[in-house]
Design brief:
Helix content is about 30%, strand content about 30%. By secondary structure, the protein is an alpha+beta fold. Strand 4 and strand 5 form a beta hairpin. Helix 1 runs antiparallel to helix 2.
Length: about 140
């Protein structure tokens, strides 16, 4: 099992470094470029949602990201300590409605095989899991 963890403040300037960190971790696994890119974008979107909704754009709050490479999956845990949003209210908008915002949750759910929101005493933990299947050589 391979495991890495990074903590950073909720400043949007940290997102590029976080994306590079996640991509570097994922490079060790048998994923397609499309899968890797979608996963990185999904984590980026989740961090953006934390900054916007849990921390109300404050740039000095803690975000923690743990990455685990298990035998049959990759699991990313994103933790915030901000305002909680009820899981049932986290609904993406309709795909065919043309307006900005609201597609991030669709992206996250498309990039990962399993997405769980765990409400903590303070904040939320988002657990995103990507299954590693037997992959045939292309």
């Amino acid at each position: 099992m391979k495991k890495k963890k990074v903590e950073f403040s909720s400043h949007t300037g940290n997102l590029a470094l976080m994306r590079k960190f996640v991509r570097g971790f994922l490079d060790a696994y048998p994923l397609s470029e499309k899968e890797r890119t979608l996963m990185v974008l999904g984590v980026d979107e989740a961090c953006t949602n934390i900054i916007r909704h849990a921390y109300h754009l404050r740039d000095d709050q803690l975000i923690s990201l743990s990455l685990e490479g298990l035998r049959n999956c990759i699991r990313l845990r994103l933790r915030d300590y901000g305002k909680q949003t009820a899981a049932h209210s986290m609904q993406g908008r309709s795909h065919d409605l043309i307006k900005p915002g609201g597609l991030g949750l669709h992206l996250i759910r498309h990039a990962f095989d399993k997405v769980d929101y765990i409400v903590k005493a303070r904040g939320t933990e988002l657990v995103m899991t990507k299954n590693l299947e037997e992959r045939k050589a292309a």
